[in-house]
Amino acid sequence: QILVLGASGQIGTELTQKLRSVYGNEHVIASDIREGNKEMMASGPFEIVDATNKKQILAIVQKYSITQIYLLAAMLSATAENHPQKAWNLNMNSLLAVLDLAKEKHINQIYWPSSIAVFGPTTPKENTPQKTVMEPSTVYGISKVAGEFWCDYYHQKFGVDVRSLRYPGIISWKTKPGGGTTDYAVDIYFKALEDKKYECFLSENTRLPMMYMDDAVNATIQLMQVKPKDIKIRNSYNLSAIDFTPKEIALEIQKHIPDFKITYKPDFRQQIADSWPQSIDDSQAREDWNWQHQFDLKSMTADIIKNLEKQYSKSL
Ligand code: VAH
């Protein structure tokens, strides 16, 4: 039995649906502090849960005999800069609550996402290695570094089976992200279809590591299915697929929508983006559990535009 915390968010929404298709609707309990989209609410059990409240989580764990938790509740990088204390409380207390439930043997497996935001201005920017300097300059990054150390600690000390990936920017079309620095690469597709123009909050040559949602969801489920002995990294695996700049994604969109126009007006998020790597070396994930991505910028763009066009024509 699986519990997804943060199931109504950008990744939670698609992860829940994929888990339901793999393990069966009744075996995947979705939860969040707000309801999810129609598809999720209709396809299986849903519970309102505050992910920082251990008692509430335990009640659900017992009600459904949960064995695995995917913890997707978090405050992202840009929002966290404006609400540091709230971000720390949400990002840390939810993780510690779930780690404790595993330590106390209420559950036996945890997935927790880390991020390339664990890296900072002093980290090598290109092909950032698995083991390198982690001196983040954002509140979000600090919470992810601390979280990674907690995961490793609970594994070493109490044998907790916790697994983690350092996600790059995740690009989706079903649910929008909220409050991240990589959100532009989602917004741009919606704006391209709605008004054929987009004002980007990052500058044209800001290169960041990114990944299509389908790849991210597959990596997550794949990691959770690996035999424990094959998981060599217990803080968090580097994970990568593609990297591009706002200019490059705009050019790709123009192949489908020739009169699409992009303008640039960098804001405070530019500094966050500038502190992160441009590309990631994820060879350890590829070696240890055979990680492979499917989508590049071209195939991802074609897939998103095809799906959004379908969605817009339905809503007309
Ligand atoms: C953010 N999407 O922008 C997140 C992420 C790689 C960055 O973790 O905050």
TrEMBL record:
It comes from the Bacteria. One of its GO terms (molecular function) is L-threonine 3-dehydrogenase activity. GO terms for biological process: L-threonine catabolic process. Pfam families: Epimerase (PF01370). Transmembrane segments: none annotated. Residues 2-226 form the NAD-dependent epimerase/dehydratase domain. Belongs to the NAD(P)-dependent epimerase/dehydratase family. This is NAD-dependent epimerase.
